[in-house]
Amino acid sequence: MGLNMNPLLGGDGFITTKLNSFVNWSRKNSLWPMPFGTACCAIEMMGVFASRFDLSRFGAEVARFSPRQADLMIVSGTITYKMASVCRRIYDQMPEPKWVIAMGSCTCGGGPFDSYAVVQGIDEFLPVDVYVGGCPPRPEALIDAVIKIQKKIEMQGAPLL
Amino acid sequence: MSFYLNSLLESLYSRFPDKVFDVKEFRGETTLYISKEKILEVCLYLKTEFDFKFIVDLTAVDYLEIKKPRFEVVYYLHRFGKDFEENFRIRLKVQIPEDDLRLDSVTSVWSGANWLEREVYDMFGIEFVDHPDLRRILMPEDYEPFPLRKDFDVRNREPSKKSFKRDLEEG
């Protein structure tokens, strides 16, 4: 992208860019997260949305509990096998393009729960873009994950539909 | 309090001779071992005669390779009263042999026992006779093993994966 200030071309500033980059630029700055909170990580996620850490600084504050209005799924909390089908179903209901953050040790690899009921990492059934370790992670870590998603959208983007 | 407990025990002994086969006291807690056939009657008697209106908890223990019979179902009953001494909690235990896992349901006495018995069925596979709705409560409905039994490998995720796959296919 470049801002044109050439007086021969009017000089009032217009932008030349590719359509793809433009769409991805707008996408990355208005992520709509779908919070899938099942445990204590969700409390930390609420902290991220609230005033002290304020995810709206990165354009991703509109958390909707409807997957059809979201493009970023934040899975925060232990996922059991019984919950996994619900989680997968909600992911399937989100419109493309979509991204997934696995927040906390449980979603990354089962955490402390090496048991018959708990999924050992949600990448068993979901494509995960960013893993956030910690039990629970600090809000800064989740913000960092959102920034990493933004970078990913900027670099790789998503196909124009 | 001890007077009250003694009268309770005497009353139980006279009402159910040979059916309350052991009484244990430990740190001020009373445990009554009840024979399997009489648990429903004893529960009803305790509720109507001694006002044990509240079933605090109903759970089970698996004593695999530690003692026989293998299972014990445990009932915690509570009665409320005006005075401190009248508030009293008692523990009943029923021994269940491995080859006959059937036990009378106490849902007709306390409806609160409904989900507790379902949980015990879910985790230990003890069948409560005359339970109104004996289904699994925590694990998926098509789950086969009983996970809190001591001979179940706690890291065995295969049955859960199977149920999960079926869930996905059915949508």
Write a brief structural summary:
The complex is a heterodimer of chains A (161) and B (171). With 161 residues, chain A is of the alpha/beta class.
Describe this protein's structure:
The complex is a heterodimer of chains A (161) and B (171). Chain A has 161 residues and is α/β, with parallel strands linked by helices. Chain A has one domain (33-153): Rossmann fold. Helices cover 34% and strands 15% of the residues of chain A. Chain A contains 5 helices and 6 strands. In chain A, the strands form 2 sheets. Chain A has a 4-stranded parallel beta sheet with strand order 3-4-5-6. A two-stranded antiparallel sheet of chain A has the order 1-2. Chain A starts with a strand and ends in a 6-residue tail after the last helix. In chain B, a hairpin with an 8-residue loop joins strand 4 (71-79) and strand 5. Chain B has a single domain, classed as 2-Layer Sandwich (Beta Polymerase, domain 2). In chain B, strands 1-2-5-4-3 form a 5-stranded mixed beta sheet. In chain B, strands 6-7 form a two-stranded parallel ribbon. Chain B is 30% helix and 27% strand. Chain B has 171 residues and is α/β, with parallel strands linked by helices. Chain B has helices at 2-15, 39-50, 113-124, 158-170, and strands at residues 20-26, 29-34, 54-62, 71-79, 88-96, 102-104, 127-129. Chain A binds chain B through residues 80-82, 84-85, 88-89, 114-117, 120, 125, and chain B through 139-140, 147, 152-157, 159-161, 163-164, 167-168, 171.
